[in-house]
Write a structure and sequence with these properties.
Belongs to the adenylate kinase family. This protein is α/β, with parallel strands linked by helices and 604 residues long. The protein has helices spanning 98-109, 116-126, 129-139, 146-157, 160-165, 176-184, 199-207, 229-234, 243-263, 277-299, 334-353, 377-393, 421-427, 471-481, 508-516, 575-583; strands at 65-68, 77-80, 87-92, 112-115, 167-170, 191-196, 209-211, 218-220, 268-272, 358-363, 398-401, 440-443, 456-460, 486-489, 519-528, 536-543, 548-555, 561-569. It has 16 helices and 18 strands. It binds BIS(adenosine)-5'-pentaphosphate.
Length: 604
């Protein structure tokens, strides 16, 4: 019953970060936030005069110059670099002194202070649409919805001054979902400072806080009164600085703090915030000064890289560590995501290096399975970025393509899964070496998108929509691409019951034949009991040019789980073959799909 050669697995599975299955809502990169815009009249450094989502973000070594010597010479790079600016996050309970310390940090280090509280208050006082929406949440001491705050923060971070001078992010992220969004966009601070102050002190600080609307300076009626009567006369109190609201804000802070910190454990510095502001700043100053020194030291050397410059995929190439566990814990940890990106990347590279040109990647871990409610477009984008940047690193010009609107008139539209995708791609961090616009380009699907200088094409989840078929455009594109590689990532090219517009130029058989002409270079699918998505019973994995491996998930007495190899297949196994392997029966090709795996017949 067991096939040819069993795949090699090791018993030491990667250690993965445990996450609670349902306590944490799965964050999603809601594409809708990309479409809203606003303006603010404030001139403060933390305010944004307009939120533009069109300019590509680059949060890295923006001041570096990347000189490409020979694009075809693998991995050889020379970088002349200035010191990379600091990226700092400051967190702490309400009134822990974040704003006060930020004033001092900005004075000394010249970072761009981005305070979500200040940005929101600017919107409120300007009476903008965002301000009106945010006001009710702020006044109630609640968090403003993620899509509003996230759009403001990412837009502000993308502005030139933040890229050049570095940034000091104050008040964001305030939830695990916000932290995950930043991770997905590859926005990582160098340091995460947490100010620690006892609750009873916090309430007194809030209630006694006063703001100078002219200078933005923060005062306290007892601790830091203003120097002159003139200033005193114009001070204002924040609407959310009542004892009752502070308590609510504090509660929300405590509920989220641990989950956010888990994202930044390795760079967290907790500081006792119940001391004089000068002493607190001394601690912060020495941390940041040291960081700055380290960065300067790093940047003086020219960089000759023999390996991937972006380090987005893990360095564990060619050492497959078995299927990672806890795949039903969502959101997936960074380790799990990187694990799969790495696995897919290796398979894709092997296939392209072997001269394969029509390829598809199908991976349905829960975050990449649109049938599940934990699907995350950010994870799909990260995967695409890892693959595209790796090929770009090999000197290839890669076009990343997302299908645009299909159909006409009332029938025009795009599959929900892809809404906003192109915008996200455009404003993602594409690395520090100017790859975007040179070695990476973003395009749509169709013959017109194929330019002479393009070396290969990565198509993001091309799919048919009800009433519209992408295959004509796809076929025209692959014809124009000739023998240049075209890689489909999670395509969905099955027939959909369509309105009259579908299949105008090609028949059904031809369409299916065309869809099948793409060779699998990576396949990963979790197996569940019929009709359920829990528990995971096993997995199928195939990486080019290897066989399909069937694994069974087993619970160990220690409470841990592991995957054990059951069987291998030279072609994608049928439902009967999977059933038989699980039941320990010899293979029976004539049997009908049935049993616990019967439901999968629709999938295969
Ligand atoms: P935000 O403005 O960020 O409020 P906060 O986090 O509650 O923090 P505070 O501004 O109240 O305090 P702070 O730590 O800056 O302390 P400060 O230096 O002023 O956010 C406001 C609202 O916006 C939120 O409630 C939410 O609705 C919304 N929002 C913001 N970000 C969001 C996000 N990411 N997602 C969703 N919603 C979001 O100091 C306080 C007082 O103490 C001052 O009077 C000061 O003079 C005094 N003081 C400071 N240091 C000391 C010291 N060492 N000793 C004695 N007194 C001190």
């Amino acid at each position: 019953m067991l096939a040819t050669s069993a795949p090699t697995t090791t018993t030491s599975l990667p250690s993965l970060h445990p996450l609670t299955y349902s306590a944490i809502p799965a964050p999603s990169l809601n594409p809708s936030f990309l479409s809203f815009s606003s303006s603010s009249s404030s001139s403060s450094s933390s305010s944004s005069s307009s939120y533009s989502y069109l300019s590509p973000l680059s949060f890295g070594l923006h001041s570096k110059t990347h000189v490409r010597i020979n694009p075809k010479l693998k991995g050889l790079r020379v970088s002349c670099s200035k010191s990379e600016p600091l990226k700092v996050m400051i967190s702490g309970a309400p009134a822990s002194g974040k704003g006060t310390q930020c004033e001092l940090i900005v004075q000394k280090f010249g970072l761009v202070h981005i305070s979500t509280g200040d940005l929101l208050r600017d919107e409120v006082s300007s009476g903008t649409e965002i301000g009106n929406k945010a006001k009710e949440f702020m006044n109630a001491g609640k968090l403003v919805p993620d899509e509003i705050v996230t759009a403001m923060v990412t837009a502000r971070l993308s502005r030139q001054d933040a890229k050049e001078k570095g940034w000091l992010l104050d008040g964001y992220p305030r939830s695990f979902a916000q932290a995950q969004t930043l991770e997905e966009l590859n926005i990582r601070p160098d340091i995460y400072i947490v100010l620690d102050v006892p609750d009873e002190i916090l309430i007194d600080r809030c209630v006694g806080r006063r703001l100078d609307p002219e200078t933005g300076k923060i005062y306290h009626v007892k601790n830091f009164p203003p120097d002159s009567d003139e200033i005193k006369a114009r001070l204002v109190t924040r609407a959310d600085d009542t004892e009752e609201k502070v308590k609510s804000r504090l509660e929300i802070y405590k509920k989220n703090a641990a989950a956010i910190s888990s994202t930044y454990t390795s760079i967290t510095n907790k500081i006792d915030g119940n001391r004089s502001k000068e002493i607190i700043f001394k601690d912060i100053d020495s941390l940041l000064s040291q960081l700055q020194k380290d960065k300067t030291a790093k940047s003086v050397k020219p960089v000759f890289q023999a390996e991937s410059r972006l380090n987005l995929a893990s360095s564990s190439r060619d050492k497959w560590r078995g299927i990672p566990t806890r795949l039903n814990n969502v959101p997936h940890s960074r380790e799990i995501r990187n694990y799969f990106y790495d696995d897919v990347l290796q398979a894709t590279e092997r296939a392209v290096n072997d001269g394969r040109t029509r390829l598809k990647v199908e991976i349905n871990i829960p975050e990449l399975n649109p049938e599940m409610d934990v699907y995350r477009i950010g994870t799909l984008m990260e995967l695409v970025r890892v693959i595209a940047l790796s090929f770009a690193d090999d000197g290839k010009c890669v076009k990343v393509c997302v299908q645009g609107s299909m159909g006409e008139g009332a029938l025009a539209g795009m599959p929900l899964q892809l809404a906003g995708t192109r915008k996200i791609l455009e404003f993602m961090d594409w690395g520090d070496y100017g790859a975007m616009g040179t070695f990476i380009k973003i395009g749509s699907i169709g013959a017109k998108e194929v330019d002479e200088q393009d070396d290969m094409f990565i198509l993001v989840a091309p799919q048919n929509a009800v009433g519209n078929c992408i295959i004509d455009d796809l076929k025209a594109m692959t014809d124009a691409a000739g023998n240049r590689p075209v890689i489909l990532i999670n395509p969905r090219l099955k027939d959909l019951p369509g309105s009259s517009g579908i299949m105008q130029t090609m028949g059904r058989d031809k369409r299916l034949e065309y869809a099948a002409s793409f060779e699998s270079c990576y396949f990963f699918r979790l197996l569940y009991y019929a009709g359920t998505q829990y528990p995971i019973m096993g997995a199928i994995r195939m990486t080019y040019p290897s066989v399909y491996e069937l694994h069974k998930r087993v619970d160990e007495p220690s409470g841990k789980e592991k995957y054990i190899p059951l069987s291998t297949f030279t072609a994608r196994p049928t439902i009967d073959e999977i059933n038989d392997a699980f039941l320990g029966k010899p293979r029976n090709k004539d049997k009908k799909a049935s049993g616990i795996w019967g439901f999968l017949s629709g999938v295969f």
